[in-house]
């Protein structure tokens, strides 16, 4: 998701902190269908009818905030914000007609709209959960504080709206006059609306200057709560047409529909490579002399020697990996997707990975590790933001028949299982990786090799698919971010590349693979649903989807986190 400069005050800091949650609005059926230009008119009319209630709630909140402000300039600034909303309400009917739509019928408020409007009213009235604000707001400072809180509750809505519509506008052809929602999108991408959003943030910064750290924390909570209410508001918009999101809703368990999710571990689930972590355990917990006084060769190595050995192995791995990439990418770039050419190139990586693992075994670096130390290290392993939450939601979703498989080059399956144990029942997680050979709970230094190449990963992937029930609807999603994941990414119905590995992209493009941001890919797929009448995901098409976070994957597959 692209960035947006909103200044360095509290408004900008809060937007930067919670901006990632905008994906849960972007990936709603409402916005995906709207971006595709095929959102049903009835769905849009329903949204417009609910939006009017929000506009009235904003106007009322501004009115109360103006009463609370103790500075004439601040009062004037809030009054101008209220006038902007009131003018929009007065011109609302003509704007809707200008956008090319009939006026919607009056509709009752939905639960999500009620929660949002009640939140705005309560905040502007000083009724803030966990905050001691006297009912009569006796002192000028208490009133000013509530004015700041109110702006904190309103600011994320406007920034989010401007941000998402600019994301959508970037996907549209500026010369395409057939997109029925283009005028609406352009309206919220206008300089006028951007200036309105910025004025709210600027005033929030001004009103927050004299607040204490505890009071700024209250604003942060209100800002975040408002973001989540915005997510709920758009997630609750009724869609009467077929939509490609969330993916889980397209699978009907009543007819045996099943979702198989595969993912890599290192730098896909984790923030760090597990091989370095295992080496660090070996260095820190190096074995002492044997009780009978004898010493192994490894025991005689100091921590410094072990670190030096590991550093040499790492340096050699990096150097040879880069040489391997260079030898492949110096060949002529394929004009179209070449699966055969890619497979031939990846054979070089297979030889390289196996040779690197053999050197690690021969070095003895992984000898003498205690299994409990490995498990404890796994439990402390830092996972990518959103990874654990996504896995938990998948495992607890009673309306979805799904299986999760981890396919990894990692040397130790116990490390993976320990790292993901906090996400749920470990037995429900299917881990496919190498293992460290052990005797009496201590590693021997040998690796039980199961997955060392892209081809072996693909074979494991296909074996899993071949063993599942042949009846019913099956859909596979593979999530990975390294060269070793390429074949599985292409074989899955939906291949999602996590992160921005330049090597993976460079190698993929060498053989004609297209990398498409997931959101724009979903918008294109939504158009296909209407034009072709099917949202069938095709294998080996040479197209992979890219994301920058697990929140995007969560939003795509499961929808709103609430």
Q: Compute the number of helices.
A: 23
Q: Give the termini distance in whole angstroms.
A: 21 Å
Question: Helix content range of the residues, please?
Answer: 55-70%
- Silhouette: globular
Radius of gyration: 28 Å
Report on the biggest sheet: 7 strands, parallel
Number of individual domains: 2
The overall pLDDT, averaged over residues, is 90
What is the CATH first-level class name of the largest domain? Alpha Beta
Number of strands: 10
Remind me, CATH topology of the largest domain? Rossmann fold
CATH superfamily of the largest domain: HAD superfamily/HAD-like
What would you say the CATH architecture of the largest domain is? 3-Layer(aba) Sandwich
Instruction: Tell me the strand order in the biggest sheet.
Output: 4-3-1-7-8-10-9
InterPro entries: HAD-like_sf (IPR036412), HAD_sf (IPR023214), Haem_Oase-like_multi-hlx (IPR016084), Thiaminase-2/PQQC (IPR004305), Thiamine_Salvage_TenA (IPR050967)
Protein name: Thiaminase-2/PQQC domain-containing protein
Domain Thiaminase-2/PQQC: 29-125, 149-236
Organism: Gossypium mustelinum
Brief synopsis:
One of its GO terms (biological process) is thiamine metabolic process. The protein is an alpha/beta fold.
Structure description:
With 562 residues, the chain is an alpha/beta fold. The protein has helices at residues 10-18, 23-26, 29-36, 41-68, 72-90, 92-98, 111-124, 140-169, 182-188, 191-208, 213-235, 274-284, 297-300, 303-329, 339-363, 371-379, 387-396, 413-420, 454-466, 486-491, 502-510, 518-532, 550-557; strands at 258-263, 367-370, 402-407, 429-432, 435-439, 442-448, 474-480, 494-498, 514-517, 543-547. It is globular and about 75 Å long. The model is unreliable at 288-295 (pLDDT under 50).
